[in-house]
């Protein structure tokens, strides 16, 4: 069977699937995926908004079309997916997964690691409300702090800047106290490393601030100004002529509770460039990110350039720093033309790292 687009195969009707009777609890099929995996799909498809209706013909956290929602029994819960609970949407999604497989969400399913197998909770029947206990069960648990007396254990997504902010010390002090643990590059810290702070620091002398970590005064003074194209043999500014409209880890209504990248406010059609050399691993529609390009760079990091009007780089293409990969736009869940630029330690949602630090490490200043 061929499909007209790769927007989401979950938006296509598969004939011959009968809706179950609306009685009791709906048991999950044997192909069930974990709730955590469905959460990842929803973060990608809808920025984790299970009641979203953007007017594009797709509804809810997992972006069902009206036809698919009806065909797979969703109307026993609500007329449209965005009016159903999270658990009910997952119940319908399980039936789509059992029939169409993970490819029903071609981009976001892949990014979330969606596959058959694993337990999922039962969904309440039609009309069942969402109790406070159920809402609590659906909410992700707060990450456990990895710090102890004069010590901190690095977790995925950490940077020295993030850790320093939490502990109330500068990244320079952290690096100085733990250089024997971290090594010569302060940008590279690994999950599981135990960092001393406070009186538990090592005797290593503090090195000069590396170019990869710019001074706070320089960063703050330029964040609201226009960015000019910056490039050297190693790195390039991803877009020129735009003000930074949202900073990394800025608090707000994003799915993660904070902004996972940097937003550059530029007009639609502005040239978007590869920030460093690497290989394009995906190019095209990526749910809430709209048209996007993901590059795996030679240093093992990944960059995501999102909300593009067009992605001009092709999957598998080798690109160099400063080479055009697309044009800025307003696609996906976007409130206006801009470039969302994100850096990740792995190609998965939630693996974001500080893009300013990473750009600085490639000789690019903001």
TL;DR?
It is built from ten helices and 15 strands. By secondary structure, it is of the alpha+beta class.
Give me the secondary-structure category: alpha+beta
Number of strands: 15
Tell me the series of helices and strands, N- to C-terminal.
Answer: HEEHHHHEEHHHEHEEEEEEEEEEH
Span between N and C termini?
48 Å
Helix count, DSSP H or I runs of 4 or more residues: 10
CA-based gyration radius: 22 Å
Strand content: 15-25%
Chain-averaged pLDDT: 72
Determine the fraction of residues in helical runs and give it as a percent range: 10-25%
Biggest sheet: strands, sense, closure? 10 strands, antiparallel
General form: globular
**Contiguous runs where pLDDT drops below 50 for at least 5 residues:** 1-31, 119-145, 200-233
Keywords:
10 helices, disordered N terminus, three-stranded antiparallel β-sheet, alpha+beta, ten-stranded antiparallel β-sheet, 366 residues, 21% helix
Write the layout of secondary structure elements.
Elements: H1 35-46, E1 58-59, E2 64-65, H2 66-71, H3 86-100, H4 108-112, H5 132-138, E3 147-148, E4 151-153, H6 160-167, H7 171-177, H8 179-182, E5 194-196, H9 216-222, E6 243-246, E7 262-265, E8 271-273, E9 278-285, E10 291-297, E11 302-311, E12 318-319, E13 324-328, E14 339-344, E15 352-353, H10 355-361
Antiparallel strand pairs: 1-2, 3-4, 4-5, 6-7, 7-14, 8-13, 9-10, 9-12, 10-11, 11-13, 11-14, 14-15
Helix pairs in contact: 6-7
């Amino acid at each position: 069977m061929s499909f007209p687009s790769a927007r989401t195969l979950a938006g296509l009707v598969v004939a011959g699937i009968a809706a179950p009777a609306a009685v009791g609890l709906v048991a999950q099929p044997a192909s069930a995926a974990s709730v955590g995996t469905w959460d990842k799909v929803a973060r990608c498809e809808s920025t984790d908004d299970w009641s979203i209706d953007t007017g594009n013909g797709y509804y809810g956290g997992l972006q069902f079309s009206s036809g698919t929602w009806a065909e797979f029994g969703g109307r026993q819960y609500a007329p449209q997916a965005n009016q159903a609970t999270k658990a009910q949407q997952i119940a319908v999604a399980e039936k789509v997964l059992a029939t169409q497989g993970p490819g029903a969400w071609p981009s976001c399913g892949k990014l979330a690691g969606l596959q058959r197998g694993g337990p999922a909770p039962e969904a309440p029947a039609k009309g069942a409300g969402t109790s406070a206990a159920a809402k609590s069960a659906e909410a992700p648990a707060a990450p456990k702090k990895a710090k102890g007396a004069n010590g901190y254990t690095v977790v995925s997504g950490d940077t020295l800047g993030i850790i320093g902010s939490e502990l109330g010390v500068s990244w320079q002090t952290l690096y100085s106290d733990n250089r024997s643990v971290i090594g010569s590059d302060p940008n590279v810290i690994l999950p599981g490393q135990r960092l001393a702070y406070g009186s538990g620091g090592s005797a290593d002398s503090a090195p000069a601030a590396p170019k990869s970590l710019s001074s706070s005064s320089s960063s703050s003074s330029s964040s609201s100004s226009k960015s000019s194209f910056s490039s050297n043999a190693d790195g390039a500014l991803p877009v020129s002529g735009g003000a930074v409209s949202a900073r990394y880890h800025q608090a707000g209504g994003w799915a993660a509770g904070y902004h996972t990248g940097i937003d550059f406010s530029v007009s639609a059609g502005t040239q978007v460039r590869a920030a460093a050399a690497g290989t394009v691993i995906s190019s095209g529609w990526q749910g809430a990110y709209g048209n996007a390009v993901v590059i795996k760079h030679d240093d093992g990091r990944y960059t995501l350039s999102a909300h593009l009007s067009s992605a001009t780089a092709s999957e598998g293409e080798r690109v160099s720093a400063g080479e055009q990969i697309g044009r800025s736009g307003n696609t996906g869940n976007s409130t206006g033309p801009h470039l969302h630029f994100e850096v990740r330690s792995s190609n998965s949602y939630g693996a974001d790292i500080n893009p300013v630090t990473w750009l600085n490490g490639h000789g690019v200043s903001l």
